[in-house]
Amino acid sequence: MGTETLKKKLQLSYKLPRLIPGKCPDEEVQRKALQDIEHLMERAEKREIHLFFGDPTHKIHNTVLGECWQEKGKTGTYILPSNTGRKRVTILGFYNPLSHDLVSLVTEGNADKQSLEKAYEELRKSYSDEKEIIVIQDNARYNHAYSVSDHAKQLRITPYFLPPYCPNLNLIERLWRLMKKTIMKNIFYPTFNDFWSAIISFCSSPEKYINELKSIMSQKFEIIKAA
After folding, report:
1. In a domain, 111, yes or no
2. What is the per-residue pLDDT for 225?
3. I need a labelling partner for 19 at 20 to 30 A (CA). Which of 53, 125, 174, 223 fits?
């Protein structure tokens, strides 16, 4: 059987493999967490709590290449400049799945205990009533720090920790992919200030992307099967 015949028979396509977390928990653990998330969603819909998905992301000031329609051949390929610097922006974000609101702390520093405490303060300022705030987040070490836990209690913020290695259950990961797609892919920012301004604009005005958000932020979560 020839190669072309085999490709047609097996319906093969030439594409990149897909990465999944190498240590993802078994499916039952993920399903239990998903049940918890659904229960929290119900409570948020009843206005018993404020619910957020939280996670930091780090964006390096450099051009990110992405596939796009171009003319065939080398001469038809777009040419984009890159930056020589390696400065980066850290965004600690909290995404509200009901209102599509984004509360964020944007900094040049690292995501650590101190920055998370400041981000929690920004979250409480934005939702200043007495209602409990629950943040669904991962198990980064600083998320479990005693000082962070104490500060969260003072602000009436309660973390819900996802099982380890489950980015598939954190909605804000989709928001960060949207950010990369809309303000970074195939876009050159000559200065760090230009890059910073684009990120601030995205974080402060998520309503500009409301159609995309409503499309990608469905409450359908994938259960990852171990490879």
Report:
1. yes
2. 79
3. 53
| CA angle 109–113–117, rounded 5-degree value | 95
Provide φ and ψ at 70, rounded to 5°.
-145, 165
SS3 206: helix
Asked, for residue 153, whether it belongs to a domain, the answer is yes
Domain count of the fold of the chain:
1
Q: Which residues contact 33 (CB under 8 A, 6 or more apart)?
A: 162, 163, 166, 169
**Residue for token pair 């819909």:** 45
**Cα(41)–Cα(52) distance, integer angstroms:** 10
CA terminus-to-terminus distance, the chain: 30
For residue 200, the enclosing domain spans 23-61+86-216
pLDDT per 10-residue tile (average), the chain, 227 residues = 59 63 80 96 97 95 69 68 80 96 95 97 96 96 96 98 93 94 89 94 93 88 78
Are the CB atoms for 119 and 105 separated by under 8 Å?
Answer: yes
Q: CATH number of the domain that 175 lies in?
A: 3.30.420.10
Q: DSSP letter for 172, please.
A: H
Residue 2 in domain: no
- Integer Cα distance of 52 and 50 in angstroms: 7
Residue 60: per-residue pLDDT: 87
The backbone torsions φ and ψ at residue 94, rounded to the nearest 5 degrees and listed phi first, read -135, 120
